[in-house]
Specification:
The protein has 520 residues and is mainly beta. It contains 4 helices and 32 strands. Helices cover 7% and strands 48% of the residues. It is elongated.
Length: 520
């Protein structure tokens, strides 16, 4: 350059680059965190939470203490949820706000470590199968991790793991841009050095929750003792210790948002050393294919598959109904929704289920009814269904919002609690009638037959009960009310349809004779 020495030009260029470089500040984890779980809106109320397929979500709010220098800084929030929806993130507490935010796309894994080390020096460590001697040599990675890896050594080029010897690559460090944990980074500016308390709030996928009810029927069948659990599920890779945790019941109007998952695939190296596939027995071929991806790397990452999901707080149902909870979640109003707040901090562990009690009521009056919907003109027989009936009012020892979930009904027989039925309950507000279908009753059968020699379209409904106690039976007929007339009894109405109710004696029967004006 005319009029300027090359040395001076290099110094100026270096000074300018240093001035433009931004400082990186890392927040290793939150000081406090709150986790609010929302149910999967598309999961049927009676379906159990599947830890391998969680489509609910959570709102996480993290409080962190950070120290920022003057100027522009890249602030990295490590340890966020792996299912974070970056566009939902809100950062407050920074002196001059946020200039830009990014979800770090690459997590540290054997594949990403290899890909980001392209062109870098590594060390190959090989072990002799004959004498166990270990040798090391330097190598440069020349291709990525897509199927086969080519490295360059002093002796030339070769494919990794194609020598027939056990070998692995050892790295001197982690390349820039790789995060060992899910990380959200933001770019911020500050006119002066400052220490600030920052709040990071965001939505994350991979969570869900459900209510599970356990009811124990009294010997006379007139009351139940009701107990309920909140089952909190996390399929995320990040644990949140001592979290303020709550669950929200109700249906939110939320649009589905696509989330870009970080690049973290399994490493698979394919090679057929010293032979072709046709020369290898099937057993050896299967073993080698099972060993693909066994390439070792210096990495702190542990990847769990769905079979390794841990279940926390689970126990036998018999123990649940005979034990007292250590703490109970408290119900609060959240607009038209209901919020269940756990009174003490708990750990929402990675890939786990946690159970927390939220309801306990004794002596809830109930009615056990056997029901069946009947086509009045069809000759058929079928079992009835058992329904548990009550009303969600303080007079019935309830009077609280009941979130939807599974119900298990037990009865004491011979000093043991035996399961007599399972069902589901939808969301119920205070004051609503509660009807729970807890399954078939094979001992209570109803049969419709045409009356032999009777008038046209005349039928007989016969209900038999093989139980040692009387049962209440209710039939609803799928026909218009004016199309059906019973003999010697006035039919009632249920949901606008003709209905009949009777008490069937123990080991006895009850009958109804009726006539149809026309066949439906």
């Amino acid at each position: 350059m005319p009029g300027r020495s090359p040395l001076l030009f290099l110094c100026l260029a270096f000074t300018s680059a240093a001035a433009d470089a931004q400082t990186i500040v890392t927040s290793a984890g939150p000081d406090r965190v709150a986790v609010t779980l929302y149910r999967d809106p598309d999961r049927a109320v009676g379906d159990a939470v599947d830890p391998r397929w969680l489509n609910g979500f959570a709102l996480l709010s993290e409080t962190r203490r950070v120290t920022l220098p003057a100027g522009e800084t890249e602030l990295r929030f490590e340890g966020v949820a792996g299912g974070i929806v970056p566009q939902s993130a809100i950062v407050t507490g920074l002196p001059d706000g946020v200039v830009e935010r990014n979800r770090d796309a690459y997590l540290l894994s054997p594949e990403s470590l290899l890909d980001r080390s392209l062109g870098r020096l590594v060390h190959l460590r090989r072990t002799s199968r004959a004498n166990g001697a270990v040798t090391e040599q330097d190598a440069v990675i020349r291709t990525g991790a897509d199927g086969a890896v080519v490295v360059q050594t002093a002796a030339g080029y070769e494919a990794l793991r194609c020598t027939g010897l056990p070998e692995m690559a050892v790295y001197d460090g982690v390349p820039p841009g790789l995060a060992a944990r899910p990380t959200l980074s933001v770019r911020t500016r500050s006119s002066h050095p400052v220490s600030a308390t920052v709040t990071l709030s965001y939505l994350s996928t991979g969570f869900d929750w459900q209510a599970n009810y356990v009811a124990r029927l009294s010997p006379d069948g007139a009351h139940v003792d009701l107990f309920a659990w909140l089952v909190l599920a996390s399929g995320d890779e990040t644990s949140f210790a001592d979290a303020e945790t709550q669950a929200v019941a109700g249906r939110l109007n939320r649009e589905h948002v696509e989330r870009d998952a970080p690049a973290q695939r399994a490493l698979q190296l394919r090679c057929w050393p010293q032979a072709t596939t046709s020369d290898i027995p099937l057993e050896e071929l299967a073993r080698r294919r099972a060993d693909e991806g066994g390439f070792m790397a210096v990495s702190p990452v542990t990847v769990l598959n769905s079979a390794e999901i841990r279940l926390q707080g689970q126990t036998r149902t018999e123990d649940l109904i005979n034990s007292l909870p250590e703490m109970m979640a408290r119900q609060e109003n959240l607009g038209d929704l209901k919020l269940y707040r756990i009174p003490e901090p708990v750990t929402v562990a990675a890939r786990s289920l946690k159970q927390v009690a939220f309801l306990e009521r004794s002596g809830v009056p109930v009615q056990i009814v056997h029901r069946r919907d009947i086509d009045p003109g069809d000759d058929d027989a079928d079992a009835s269904h058992i329904f548990l009936l009550t009303r969600n009012r303080p007079e019935e020892q309830l009077g609280v919002a009941l979130p939807g979930g599974r119900v298990q009904l037990f009865r004491d027989e011979g000093g043991r609690s035996l399961l007599i039925g399972e069902g589901e309950v939808r969301d119920h507000a205070v004051g609503q009638e509660v009807e729970i279908d807890i399954g078939e009753a094979p001992g209570v059968i109803s049969r419709v037959t045409a009356v032999p020699g009777g008038r046209r379209r005349e039928y007989l409904l016969t209900v038999t009960n093989d139980q040692s106690y009387p049962v209440r039976f209710e039939a609803t007929f799928r026909t218009l009310p004016g199309n059906m007339r019973a003999r010697d009894v006035e039919l009632g109405r249920r949901n606008g349809l003709p209905a009949w109710a009777a008490t069937v004696p123990a080991n006895g029967r009850a009958t109804l004779r009726y006539r149809l004006r026309r066949e439906d």
